[in-house]
Design goal:
The chain is α/β, with parallel strands linked by helices and 328 residues long. Helix content is 51%, strand content 15%. The protein has helices spanning 4-7, 30-47, 64-74, 89-99, 118-127, 145-161, 178-186, 194-201, 224-238, 241-271, 278-311, and strands at residues 20-26, 51-57, 78-83, 104-107, 132-137, 170-177, 205-210, 318-322. An eight-stranded mixed β-sheet has the order 7-5-6-4-1-2-3-8, sandwiched between helices. α2 (30-47) links the parallel β1 (20-26) and β2 (51-57). α6 runs parallel beside α9 and α10 (241-271) runs antiparallel to α11 (278-311). Bound molecules: uridine-5'-diphosphate and magnesium ion (MG). The site of uridine-5'-diphosphate has 16 residues, from β1 and α4.
Length: 328
């Protein structure tokens, strides 16, 4: 866990000045920035409170950083954190959460798939004392059929396996209260499955429905395999169920083997010695061998998480910041 006072010495989260902080992770989003700000800033102005926009340039290879610098020159409340390489969205969001000083912190995608207009409704709900207001997709029509079926399956499995259920279709589009942000910042783990962590920290939550727009420009950075990896990571970080499953399967098969052994003894005594089948042996060897490899693989997944945690590397490295106080 990076020490925020070292990375953002200018920040003092407890006595932040902005009321609303908007965190925007950006990976090759140069074309999306102008239309995004054109919609977002009027909403922030309308709400009448002090605001800041924190853009995290997650190692973009296009003009994202120079476009952001240009915007910062006109509007000092647009601040930028440049990470030293692409660390992934979760790390970028973690950087933003550490840097945000607002009492209300909005997380949203930069590709305008999350409508900034929903912020008004989210703020109204948070004003009633709800700590986490998350955007709930009205439909997943911008996604393919396979992807939505798989994602529904994932939420069902996750809710069964993990100690904390996460609402299906809840996105990373969220308004968090200060105490939720402080709680998230205090979590020491390196493997950050944010969707699970929001649920883990607790506090009250409410939903706002929104329609997912099609991406305005660029392409989604999530390939099918990346998404599968993300889902698997989520399950492993939040549940020991796969381990229990392999223990269960192991004992179940051992019990079956005992029953089968008893059957062989009885049949030999009753029917005389008959050479037992070669097929049975082959099937048993392959089946058990496969199961053992699977169990070792699952164990390995958990051990690799332990390995990651013990290295205690920071979640991200900040190369540069623009627009934070006390900057030289
Ligand atoms: N993003 C990021 N780092 C990455 C991948 C994505 O900061 O490595 C940002 C991206 O710029 C966007 C948001 O995360 O603002 C969501 O990404 P994307 O649109 O690719 O995901 P999808 O909407 O397809 O889930
Ligand atoms: Mg997107």
């Amino acid at each position: 866990m990076p020490d925020d006072s070292r990375i953002f010495p200018q920040q003092s989260c407890a006595q932040g000045h902005a009321t609303i902080s908007v965190i925007l992770p950006m990976y090759n989003e140069a074309e999306a920035i102008a239309p995004l700000f054109a919609r977002l800033i009027p909403i922030l102005e309308q709400l009448g409170s002090d605001w800041e926009i924190i853009c995290i340039d997650d190692g973009s290879r296009d003009a994202t950083l120079s476009v952001l610098e240009h915007w910062h020159r006109d509007e000092a409340r647009i601040r930028v954190i440049k990470l030293s390489r692409n660390f992934g969205k979760e790390a970028a969001l973690s950087a933003g959460l550490l840097a945000a000083s607002g009492t209300h912190v909005l997380l949203m995608d930069s590709d305008l798939q999350h409508p900034p207009e929903s912020l008004t409704e989210m703020m109204a709900i948070q004003a009633r004392g709800v700590d986490i207001v998350y955007g709930l997709r009205r439909s997943r029509r911008t996604e393919g059929c396979v992807r939505s079926v798989l994602s529904a399956l994932f939420y069902r499995l996750f809710s069964r396996a993990a100690e904390v259920p996460i609402p299906a279709n809840a996105s990373d589009f969220r308004l968090l209260s200060r105490r939720v942000v402080d709680a998230l910042n205090a979590l020491p783990e390196q493997n950050r499955f944010l969707k699970g962590l929001y649920a883990w920290v607790g506090y009250s939550s409410g939903a706002v429905l929104y329609d997912v727009a099609a991406r305005r420009s660029g392409a989604s950075k999530w390939s099918f395999f990346k998404l599968c990896g993300y889902a698997w990571n989520g399950v492993i970080s939040f549940s020991a169920a796969p381990l229990r499953l392999s223990a269960f399967l192991g004992s179940f098969i051992a019990a079956l083997a005992l029953i089968y052994a008893a059957w062989i003894v009885v049949s030999t005594l009753v029917f005389g010695n008959d050479v037992p089948g070669y097929t049975t042996l082959a099937v048993a060897i392959f089946f058990l061998g496969g199961l053992q490899l699977l169990s070792i693989g699952i164990l390995g997944e958990y051990i690799s998480r332990i390995f990651d945690e013990t290295k205690r590397r920071p979640l991200f490295i900040v190369e540069d910041t623009i627009g934070f106080k006390d900057e030289t």
